[in-house]
Every structure is written in structure tokens, then in C-alpha cells.
Amino acid sequence: MLSVKKILIPIQGTPLSESTLTTAYYLSKNYNAHLAVIHIQPDRKDLIPLTSEGLSGSMIEEVMNVAASENQKRLKLAREIFDNFIDKYNIELTDPDLTEPAKEKITASFTNMVGRENELITYWARLSDITVISHPDSDSEISSSEALHTLLFDSGRPIIIAPKQKPLTTGKKICICWNGSAESAAALHASLRWLHYAEQVYILYTNDYENHGKKIQDVVNYLKFHNIQATPHQLGNDRDVGNTILSTCNEIGADMLCMGAYSHPRWQQLILGGVTRYMLENANISVLMNR
């Protein structure tokens, strides 16, 4: 059985950080995994090209000082949220360079990094079993949307997007979106780690899938090889597939959704809309995505 030993959790010190940490905690409980929490601050030298045009030396220095002050405030808040989190759940604080996690308990570490977020987050995601990232809330002062898409396209690892509101459970009732694509297959495989422990598993599909000569029972039978009992659930014919999926998850009472991301080109979905885009904007439960 696939295991989970290390979960990467980038936090930015926003109100969404608490929900992100809580989601990761629920996902780690069955494995006593290590929660590697990182906070990334931009390097001062990377800000200079963005602020130098048309500004005097003293004005640039002032802008840099303001940015540095804001970064420190964000770091302080991120650390406070982290410390409160490990105290609440009685999680052991360990060194970030831990090589062998404790076998009988969940452990956590906090690392502040300085550099380019997309490069650092991708590097460490590739060295983790999965990454849990905050919801890309456009109303937040800092949006995680760019980091999220970097992880999806460049890390080669599955990610889980935490809901905006702190969840009460994660992984007890799981819905799997299945359309037979490579992306949905990757998400199904990544979700096996949690399907084993779920109380109920549902496979969501549309009638188009079986109209092309494929059988949803084949997916059910595959999961049986992993001792996972799943229930097929055919979606309605509503053209708004994203809304239909999310409504079905809410009706079932699911607390986690697993799906492939961007089965169609990303530019097409951003312009015309699509299921991935809808979920990124509207999901109110944890969403595992892979591609």
C-alpha cells in the first residue's frame, strides 16, 4: 500500500493558513507523517527590477524597507499560526532536516526560506509525497494561485487544495471524478493513500463515458484489487459540469474530491471556462488534483 511520510505545506501567514494546516493534519493522521511547513519570502534583489524604473535611489530604498517590514510581519504571523496549530494538536516540533520521522506520532517543522517562490516550492514539492496548499482565494491580500499552478504543471506530484473554511473532517467521504483521461487516472492513483481509510467512496461519471463503450464497473473492479469498495454515481446531463460535481459532493456529504487537472489545455479553460477552473474558484471541500 502506498504510504505518506512527508507532506509539504507552504503557508503565507494569511487567514487561510489555519485551514491549510488543519487539512494536512487530517491527511497525515493514518500515517504519522511529517508536516514540512515552509514560508517563503522574496529576496530583496529580486524586487529591485520591479521598483527601480523612474525612482530615485532614496525612493527605491524606502520601497524596499516597506517590503522588508511587511515580509517580517507576514513571517511572524505565519509562525504564530504554526505554533498555535502544533500546540492544539499536540504535534512534536522537529528539525527541518529530519531524515526519519517518528513512527508513533505526527511531527512538524517550520522553515523560513528566502528566494523565488515558484522555484523553491517546486523543488521541495518534488521531494514530498504530496503538497497541501491554500485555496487560491482572489479576495486574499496574497493569492496562492500562481504557486498552485506552478505545482500542478511543474512539480510532477499531486497537490491538495485546502478549503477556505477550516474543515471538520477530511478523507472520510471521498468522491472521485472519472472520465478515463490520463489526468483522472493520475488523480485516482494518488488518492489510493486515503481511499483505504475512507468510510465511503463514490466514483462520479457522466453518461458520455459509458456511451463510448467503456464501463464504470471496470473502475470499481480496479479499486477492489486494493480492497476499496466504491459506489458509482452517474451525474446529470447539466452542461455546467463543475457545478454539478460540486453540488453532488455536497449532497453526498463528501469532505474530499479527487480529480485530474486541465485535461484540456489550460489557456482554453481560462478563456472558455472548465471544470478545473470552476473547482479552483468554488470548491468548499478539500480537492486533490493531479495531471
UniProtKB/TrEMBL annotation:
PANTHER family: STRESS RESPONSE PROTEIN NHAX (PTHR46268), UNIVERSAL STRESS PROTEIN HP_0031 (PTHR46268:SF15). Belongs to the universal stress protein A family. This is Universal stress protein UspA. Residues 237-289 form the UspA domain.
